[in-house]
Specification:
single chain; alpha/beta; Undecaprenyl pyrophosphate synthetase; 8 helices
Length: 263
């Protein structure tokens, strides 16, 4: 069973205190058992929680909090690509979030659509392919148009795959797949999910201090390592991301079996 780990600014540092916080993700660590080699996860999910609380803390509106969070999301996506992550899943706006006030939902959709259009050039330059995961039913037309544009513009890239969950719920994904499933095993079932190309997640990082998956990637998180960071999403820096990757590198993943090497 995977375990959560709460990051704290003053307590968590990569072992051996390397000059760059991510160094210990890639390099063996003398303080670990000789049977373990540290490495970076290939498939990571980010649950960017805390935009509204951050806004309230700074005397701003919820919309301003979501806007600040969207700016951070762009930067962390580019950081993840630079750090060698192959697949990044961003839990953007869930089907449960769609039940918020119509004004807040409309604001978020406008912000995301705008950032998609703005992000085409950035993703294209970085070799990142973007794919939206979730139900398109209920999304406004401006969002659907923005999704079509950015998916088409980045479809040929392969340096990193970026999945963005919009109007997505893990239970609904499993229910819809189960309704179409006629047998054949896990691999056949996996192909019926929203994004069959999404591999099982090595690491799930949630900001904002809450310790739950909130109906997120349920199938893909079966054996994920979990990191819960107290920072609200707009305050989640590249250093915090690197620290989470370093924390993953210190763990032994058993996957229900005997200890397994990470390297």
């Amino acid at each position: 069973m995977t375990r959560g780990n709460r990051l704290r600014e003053r307590s968590l540092r990569p072992l051996n205190a390397p000059a760059s916080p991510v160094a210990s993700v890639h390099q063996p660590n003398d303080r670990l058992s000789g049977s373990i080699t540290t490495r970076s996860p290939r498939c990571v999910a980010l649950y960017p929680d805390g935009n509204v609380r951050w806004a309230a803390r700074h005397g701003l509106s919820a919309m301003e909090g979501h806007l600040a969070g969207s700016e951070v999301a762009i930067q962390r996506v580019l950081d993840a690509c630079e750090l060698g992550i192959e697949q990044l899943s961003l839990f953007g706006f869930s089907s449960d979030n769609m039940k918020r006030s119509s004004a807040e939902v409309a604001s978020v959709m406008q912000i995301v659509a705008t950032q998609f259009d703005r992000g085409v050039e950035l993703l294209d330059r970085s070799g990142i392919r973007l794919q939206v995961v979730g139900s398109r039913s209920g999304l406004p037309q401006l969002m659907l148009d923005a999704v079509d544009r950015i998916e088409a513009a980045t479809a040929h890239h392969s340096r990193m795959q970026l999945f963005v969950a919009l109007n997505y719920g893990g239970r609904q994904e499993l229910l819809e797949a189960a309704q179409r499933y006629n047998g054949g095993g896990e691999e056949v079932f996996r192909r019926l999910l929203c994004a069959p190309e999404m591999r099982e997640l090595d690491l799930v990082i949630r900001t904002g201090g809450e310790q739950r998956l909130s109906n997120g990637y349920l199938w893909q998180s079966a054996y994920s390592e979990l990191v819960f960071d107290d920072e609200l999403w707009p305050d989640f820096t590249r250093e915090r991301l690197e620290m989470a990757l370093a924390d993953f590198g210190q763990r032994v993943r058993t996957l229900g079996r005997a200890h397994r090497r990470l390297g």
